[in-house]
Each structure stands twice: as C-alpha cells, then as structure tokens.
Amino acid sequence: xxxxxxxxxxxxxxxxxxxxxPGQIRNSxxxxxxxxxxxxxxxxxxxxISHSPSAIGSFCSAFSPSRLRAFAGIxxxxxxxxxAFASTISIQGGFGYPAALDASGNPVDAGYEVAIGTFxxxxxxxxxxxxxxxxxxxxxxxxxxxxxxIFGTPxxxxxxxxxxxxxxxxxxxxxxxxxTNNLASxxxxxxxxxxxxIFTSLATPADSSSTWTFPAVGPEVQPPADLRQLNTxxxxxxxxxxxxxxxxxxxxxTGTSTQPTAWDDWVRSxxxxxTDPSSIDPDAVSGSSGLKNFVAFxxxxxxxxxxxxAYETTTHPAxxxxxxxxxxxxxxxxxxxxxxxxxxxxxxxxxxxxxxxTPETETTESVAAYLPIGSDQSKAFFRIQxxxxx
Length: 390
Description:
Layout: H1 6-10, H2 22-39, H3 53-60, H4 65-81, E1 87-93, E2 113-119, H5 132-138, E3 139-146, E4 148-150, E5 153-163, E6 174-180, E7 193-200, E8 227-231, E9 237-240, E10 242-244, E11 247-249, E12 251-252, H6 262-271, H7 277-280, H8 293-298, E13 311-315, E14 322-329, H9 331-334, E15 336-343, E16 354-359, E17 364-370, E18 381-388
C-alpha cells in the first residue's frame, strides 16, 4: 500500500496534522509502509496491520497519544479509501519556478487549463504537434488544474494527483497548457483554443522523483520510486510553443483566424473571467455608461469602470469653432467604424465636418471634428455613428 499517496487522494493539498508538515507525514508513512512490507507481502486491508504489532509499536513509541491518534486517522483513511498501490505526481509552475506565458509573452491569465498526461500508444505527438484536434483525441489525462496567481506570481499553477492505473507506467509525462476564448476546457475540435503549448523533459536525472516518466505501480515499487515532483524549471523540450528564458511559452494555434481578436482581448480586459453571455454579448449594455458593448469597444472605453467620458465637446484651438473629441479603436483592428456627425436641428446630419485624426497607440486613435467655417456656431448637436466597417 502506498501510504505516501494517501493524503493527496482525499485532499489535493494535504495539511499538516498536529504540528507535522506534509513532508514529515509522507516520510513517516513511507517508513511504516516499509516496516509493514517486511512483515507481510499481502498488505491489502486493515487486518494486515495486526500481523506486525512490533513494527507499529516501534514506530509509534515516539508519538504522544494525541499525535498518535491523529496519525492513526491518516493511516485508517489510507487503508479504507485507497487501492493497495498507487503513484503520486505533483507539478509546479511559477512562485519560485518559471511561470507560464501566453503567445504574446505575458503571464497566462487565471483560469486556463493546465494538464499532465501522456498519449495513446502508437501516436507521435512530435509529428502531430501542430494538429491540436489530433493531439486532444490521443491525449490521456492524468491530472488537470488551472492557472492562477500564487504568492503574487501570475501564470502559476500547482497540483498533486494520485493514480493506481498501471497502464501509465513508463510512459513519458507531458505538460499541456491551453488558452481558450471562453475560459473553458479545450473543445474536441479545438475550436475555442487560441494558443497552446506541449512540454516535457528528456533528461534522466539521478533523482528519479524529477524524471518525466510515469512511475511503476505495484508492491515491488519502493518509495520514493513511486513519486514524481515536477516543476517547470526541469522542462528542456517543447513540442509546440517555446521556452522563453525557461518559461513554458504558448504559441498561436495554427491558422491566424484562431488567434484572439481585439474584441476577445477587450472582453477579457473589461469582464475578466466573467463569460456570462448576458454580460459580454456585443449588444448587451454594461455599467452605467448606457453604451452597448460593441459601441464601448469601438470607442476604446471601459463601460464597467470608465476612466473618462467616451467623448467630450471641444473648441477649435485657432478660431473657437465648436466640435467633438473622442478616442476610437482603429477600424482595421476593431472591425467597426466610429464616425462623428453633426446637426443643427436633429434632423439633418449631413454637415461636413473638419476632422483631425491623431494616432495614440498601435490600436487606438483620437478624433477631433469641428463645425465647418462659416456655419452657424450658436447651436449644434453631435453624435458618433458606430457600425460594422466595410
């Protein structure tokens, strides 16, 4: 029985018991398991413990009654809830190790899937690295978690998993990182995946616990041979993606049409992990601005927490003619045009405006539009017409 795996099976992040750290508890469990194994080769139930009272008594003599009771609870849970033999694999990225980066080189936002596993026999992931649907079809997951910020480090992740499936034994461990346009798991056809990466380590370190192959499972496997403690600093091979200064870095999925659009980036910047269609739909009205999402996007503003009004009236610096000024997302980026219009009677909006466009960033520009010279300056109405760009 693999007592080292016990706490992880019932709680992915085991907590210290009565003043003992998870490492101390794991080491103690290994010691007990080895003592028990020396007494019996068929330790499969709680009754087997009674076959070796001297082993148990020798080990437990150093514990106080309260600690012994706490420790006995761990052992009992192990005997009742776990199969006889299992392996434990943990993996860590960020907070002390290289964090995961997206295809733009930024730390991966919280909520994206991180998985370790292997591939079906006969499938060559290196030859199919750019064919994500084929990779997903042949993927055998061992454990899954998501990216999050840990100790102030974005793009981090950690999990520990226990498995007693002997069919994983000896197979290479792969780390599969995916980023989707809806924070969901990758669809079988990968239609929601924007960028991804596949990583592993080909090294054969002396310490078997840092080897990227699944350990064997069985009574003959002595700890720590049934344990893998992996982290991103060990990665030396990327099948898809890159290693940027040691960080596993995703790459865009093959085909430019699958890269995140400016709309995708804007939605994430405004709504974060909220994927509720009633909030992020282009026609939904968010916040107090009263603007539909697609209008706020075209005007490069945040409708939920606007830093400034989407537009403002202004006067021409030379002659004082009245006008309007606003910032817009470039139409070639947004897919929308945002053009100023003016009227003196709210009926005829065909006044020809004097317009000045000034680039602000790679994706935005400022627009200033003034009433024409010689027009009536006593009264004017302005509006911004937002519609799909031709």
